[in-house]
Amino acid sequence: MDRLAGQRGPCHAGPEGRIFSAGIEVGDESDLCPVFAVAFSGCDLRCDFCNTGRESWDASAGSIPEGVEREALLGRIGRAWESGAVRSLMILGGEPTIHLASALELVAALPVGLPVVWKTNAHGTSESNALLEGVFDCWVADLKFGNDDCARRVARVENYCSTVHDNLRWAAGQTRLIVRHLLLPGHLECCWRPAAAWMAEHLPRVEVSLRTGFWPGWFSSRHPELKAPGRLSEAQEATRIGIEAGLRLIQ
Ligand code: SF4
Fold first, then answer.
1. 46 within ligand 1 shell (Cβ under 6 A)
2. Residue 235 has what pLDDT?
3. Mutational pocket test of ligand 1: of 45, 98, 99, 153, the residue with most ligand atoms within 8 Å of the beta carbon
4. According to the model, what pLDDT value does residue 95 have?
5. Predicted TM-score (pTM) of this structure
6. Ligand 1, closest atom to CA 53?
7. Is the CB of 92 under 6 A from ligand 1?
């Protein structure tokens, strides 16, 4: 797909990455926080529960960081790092992999010593992995579904498991990897249990961040089970499954 020539793929992204949000956040894994989070617009998936759907489904949201705006962003990042206000910088989306060139340009201009985290849906290609190798101090990568049927129904993606499993195995071999799973109501048995079993077998040493605070939003109401917030009983059972599988659960 030649975006410079005007072609567009399923994510509709143009040749230059657009940023819809940049600032200090505290909602990520505790030893990464506070992070300075830079969020690129657009995504290659279409999760109906996406909590940033307005920008993540619209690659034209936000602005292209160039000129004065880019210098201002780098200045804010530099001041946050030097003052001790943040522990790391996180690049996320949407899905930042669809803006690889822009994301890597930004990383190249960051202050020396600032740990950089790549937050991804782990649905990239082997070509994108090759360009990301050795660049990041940590990957926070999603394993959203435990089977292809749920992925197809809720995120409209085919062959989800094989693609994401391959990428997670690759990432685990080249940097610190935190696998994130958002517990979806009603998906304990079909998604979390098989995801936990797969990690126990194939990635036994990775850190696993089980997120239990699901809140319905965006197009969640298309799915009866996703109309209500996550239930405490499911969160407790999910934690028990993770512990029994021997996962390294972190918060
Ligand atoms: S992968 Fe993340 S950003 Fe993309 S649609 Fe799904 S929840 Fe939204």
1. yes
2. 98
3. 45
4. 98
5. 0.96
6. 8
7. no
Between CA 6 and CA 225 the distance in angstroms is 40
Pair 205, 248: CB distance under 8 Å: yes
Domain ranges, ordered by start, for the chain = 1-120
With a 6 Å cutoff on the Cβ, whether 58 touches ligand 1 is no
**Cβ–ligand 1 contact at 55 (below 6 Å):** no
In the chain, what is the straight-line distance between the N-terminal and C-terminal CA atoms, in Å? Answer: 39
Cβ of 182 less than 6 Å from ligand 1? no
pLDDT along the chain (251 residues), means of 10: 90 93 96 97 97 96 92 97 98 96 96 96 97 97 98 98 98 97 98 98 97 97 98 98 98 94
- pLDDT at 65 (0 to 100): 87
* CA separation, residue 63 to residues 4, 19, 156 (Å): 18, 5, 27
CA distance linking residue 101 with residue 105, whole number of Å: 6
pLDDT value of position 120: 98
Q: What is residue 4's DSSP assignment?
A: G
